[in-house]
Amino acid sequence: MQFDNTKIADAMYQWATDLFPISRSITGDGVRQTLNYLQSINPEINIIEVPSGTKAFDWVVPDEWNIRDAYIEDSHGQKIVDFKNSNLHVVGYSEPVDKVMALHELQQHLYSLPEQPDAIPYVTSYYQRRWGFCLTEKQRSCLQPGNYHVVVDSTLQPGSLTYGEVILPGREDKEIFFSTYVCHPSMANNELSGPVVTNALLGYLKSLPERRYTYRIIFIPETIGSIVYLAKNFGQMKKNMIAGFVVTCVGDNRTYSYLPSRLGSTLADRVTEHVLKYHASEYIKYSFLDRGSDERQYCSVHVDLPVCSVMRSKYGTYTEYHTSLDDMNVISPDGLYGSYQALKKCITLLEENYTWQITCCCEPQLGKRGLYPMLSTKDSGRQVKTMMNILAYADGEHNLLQLADKINESALQCLTIIRELERHGLLVKCN
Amino acid sequence: MQFDNTKIADAMYQWATDLFPISRSITGDGVRQTLNYLQSINPEINIIEVPSGTKAFDWVVPDEWNIRDAYIEDSHGQKIVDFKNSNLHVVGYSEPVDKVMALHELQQHLYSLPEQPDAIPYVTSYYQRRWGFCLTEKQRSCLQPGNYHVVVDSTLQPGSLTYGEVILPGREDKEIFFSTYVCHPSMANNELSGPVVTNALLGYLKSLPERRYTYRIIFIPETIGSIVYLAKNFGQMKKNMIAGFVVTCVGDNRTYSYLPSRLGSTLADRVTEHVLKYHASEYIKYSFLDRGSDERQYCSVHVDLPVCSVMRSKYGTYTEYHTSLDDMNVISPDGLYGSYQALKKCITLLEENYTWQITCCCEPQLGKRGLYPMLSTKDSGRQVKTMMNILAYADGEHNLLQLADKINESALQCLTIIRELERHGLLVKCN
Amino acid sequence: MQFDNTKIADAMYQWATDLFPISRSITGDGVRQTLNYLQSINPEINIIEVPSGTKAFDWVVPDEWNIRDAYIEDSHGQKIVDFKNSNLHVVGYSEPVDKVMALHELQQHLYSLPEQPDAIPYVTSYYQRRWGFCLTEKQRSCLQPGNYHVVVDSTLQPGSLTYGEVILPGREDKEIFFSTYVCHPSMANNELSGPVVTNALLGYLKSLPERRYTYRIIFIPETIGSIVYLAKNFGQMKKNMIAGFVVTCVGDNRTYSYLPSRLGSTLADRVTEHVLKYHASEYIKYSFLDRGSDERQYCSVHVDLPVCSVMRSKYGTYTEYHTSLDDMNVISPDGLYGSYQALKKCITLLEENYTWQITCCCEPQLGKRGLYPMLSTKDSGRQVKTMMNILAYADGEHNLLQLADKINESALQCLTIIRELERHGLLVKCN
């Protein structure tokens, strides 16, 4: 795996390209293939199977769904809708069917989007048995009265739910958490971008000479996956987690956005807001009321973990969302790389979020240490302003994040100066 | 009494019409007639007499004032100003007089409004003995030099201050308080609207199958009445009151307004703001510095009860205020009914302002309970959004009011959904 | 000394005029002459000498600098730059030199401002030995190639740092602090305005029949002076100081401005903001990040005294700043007097910032005390509004400043009414 920053962007895009055609759902072989692929890049990923029927809080792991083929054939034997062309053509979790029926009956099982006539919608029915086909409004409007042969060659039977997990130990037991989901079929921004960016972050974390914190990274099916994962790991997570991130919709290059945790002011929230403020020229801050992914579980009442979501164009807000239009053109190497960089900065800020204290009373004499321009002129004061501001707020009360927010500077920029002031003995790290 | 909502609006207007001609002041038979009329509708009202000379904090109940007749006669024996035409013609608490005097002397006793030439102003002098007449600027400008016969046939002598009081018991001793005043002569919005809306609320409260809270409702003369009432009842009120409302100027149909308590964030304040936000398309929020009615006493330093004022057009802010123009055309059945509804909503919100907690970890599976659309489509998430948001904040920390504010929904709308979630065992009320 | 307000404005301007020509720096005879002059007006000022080499936190008192003469002579023996014309012509703390050199070598020692061709810049080099001349861009551009005779007749040798200090005792040990600086050569707003306004305030404080608080007033060289002063007096200051003010750039008549303390909400901050709000039609509120004078030391981490800066046009923000253009035309009697008045109001507010409590329950009956207009008319309520508002918030919790802020009135105006209410026994001062 390549951690050269100039190449990681392309690598992520290539991974997404490779994973795109796989037919994923909340269970089944598509999830396994996806995890195997990710594991081939980061062998630390453990793949875990949870049997159908396993209880998890209010939920039960459903039967496993696999699908071999599906199509609608017209009376001339012409396959007019074919799963082989797009795995979005079949409603997720469709039960098997092999029937001939008239158009008016078939219509009850068809889904299309009149306002997006070229898009195949993404539809699922996980917990209510049914079958159905999704097609473009254009295709649908061409259907002639007559009989159609409808085939869904799927299985729905006890099996398991599959997810991937990595725990990278650090000097401290306290954990930083990343969660992304691998249950969406052929859609790029939502959701191959999350898995590939998370996989790249995993590579980055492995490459670090040492880690202060322990990292818990999971690749799960959405909702049922996070619920099952919490049912198994909640105690440990609650005890140790200092910040967590749902990584979703991070592939397009349009905007950045952030969805806060339920309580809204956890360390994860504050770090994300700080990083995005300096990383992006602007970003959208959503409300927890706009939530829609696994933060729904991580932030639920009795769970309340410090987890927020970091995104580019949020699910539900962009035209291509949950349709066949969310293809590899929606995401880009640049889009993925920007998100990867933003999350790397969150990691750095968390790892370095110490508190410092100035070692002397009053301002130190920077000049005798070569830290101050020797000649006082009209403008010289400004050159050392940031350094002076750091010294002014290094009071042992403000950690890096708070100090940087206080003086309106990027924390990562402050860190460079703090290192220099430490070298000169002017700042000392507090316990 | 009619509690059919379609008829209560007309009933309130009729009561105001009946009460309009009575000559009220802070003491005297006009107050008694008014209270007797209200009692004829709600016999639970107790009418209480407090003797002149009774001390109440810094105040003393004044002598009782009654008036039989008053007029100004010109030299031709023509009554040019006559109390029988409008009880506003006499300065409230005018001492008796029967004199002939020249115009220039009479002018010292006349009050008119140059900027509202058709309005008789409302003037009183409760604690400084004097007499006077109020008339329109038009009338005044027609007065010719000459002698005038001036008669005020009034009595000012020891008697009592009269007020009405109802205590409706509830399951809890904690009290909700309504205060309105019955000391204004023939003016409609300020102040017959308050007494008639309060009387209708009293009827509504009686009609409830059960009440959580105890209700204390009083019909008093302004200022001296609330001071006297506090002097007698403060201990009990301080111990039990959770929220109180001064009901005044609630009859016109122009706007809603709210004047907060001194401290500004009592339960009464928060309930009123929440209700008005959803009840009215907009409302005016005044400052406690704009106060002018009995909240001056209820919120005074050593008293500090949780009382705010709910109004339509606030006293002092509308053209007709404190003049003969504030007549039955200023108020309307609709205007009164809107206020009645708003205050009913405050009552419901207070009665139901419990705290709930979700019974499971993570989100519950709504689908298996028929609470979730079975087919997941692009938009289906939005349909259950409010339900999900309620579940997300039903953490045993947010009461109904706080929960509704948090998720930007009307508390009364939330209540319907909470009831359904309770039925499904997903929410449980916290003690 | 004249404390007649009509004459104090002119007196301050005269003092500045007298002090203007003196060549000041952070040490040396110019500082002594300045302090002697101020002492001739207020003999209470003690002049203190701190020997070169004395350690103060991270700093050491430098050698004393004195200068007799300095010039640049061209090859015709013409003095083209002459210290006698302006003491800004020499870089502050220039070491002695007596050399002939070619223009290109001389240029390394010249300072001018291309964008302000008529201004001599103010340049210093206290802690790095060098010499240099400042001149206008116009002068500089006329220099012809050739040899120049350069003379700085200065001494840089062990001596002392000189400052002035007054402690005016009050009834309480708690202190109010004023700090201003006397190290700038011939510049008016920055900085003769500070010393002369502070000197006038000292006169005002002496003239008071009694003082509640103790006043600590110092005239120091900037930065090294405040550091040295803190090193000697920090314990006492930390124990007693309730509010302090850096007085700088208070002479021009353009605007008012305020720079908060590091923590931003000390008593000094709140008093200054309140006073400026009512004293000036508008004022600029800077951030502590914009700091540049001795609040850098007074508010530094381990010091954290409650000190803010009160200014007219802040250093660094006006065209004439740190150049020869900051002359006696920049400041004016009016400008100085406005600042003097603002600071006097701060003093009054601090001295009178007690807490009061209303003595009765409910509103008092103002009428029987002659405090209320006897006749209640449409507008009469407004006349006593401020009095009523004071009574409404005189709860023993709000001090004068908080009460005034709460009711949106000037504290000094409230004070007059509070006095009257005290006389009537309606308010009582809390311990």
Secondary structural class of chain A: alpha/beta
Provide mean pLDDT of chain A, rounded: 95
Provide the domain count of chain A: 3
Query: What is the 3D shape of chain A?
Result: elongated
Number of strands of chain A: 19
Q: Estimate percent helicity of chain A.
A: 25-40%
Summed up:
The first copy, chain A, has 431 residues and is α/β, with parallel strands linked by helices. In chain A, 32% of the residues lie in helices and 23% in strands.
Written description of the protein model:
In chain A, a hairpin with a 5-residue loop joins β4 and β5. With 431 residues, chain A is of the alpha/beta class. An eight-stranded mixed sheet of chain A has the order 1-10-12-11-13-16-14-15, sandwiched between helices. A four-stranded antiparallel sheet of chain A has the order 5-4-9-6. Chain A has a three-stranded antiparallel sheet with strand order 18-17-19. Chain A has three domains: 250 residues, Zn peptidases (Aminopeptidase, 3-Layer(aba) Sandwich); 94 residues, Glucose Oxidase, domain 1 (3-Layer(bba) Sandwich); 75 residues, Arc Repressor Mutant, subunit A (Orthogonal Bundle). Chains in contact: A-B, A-C, B-C. Chains A and B meet through α6 of A and α11 of B.
List keywords for this structure.
3 domains, four-stranded antiparallel β-sheet, homotrimer, Arc Repressor Mutant, subunit A, Aminopeptidase, 13 helices, Glucose Oxidase, domain 1, 431 residues, alpha/beta
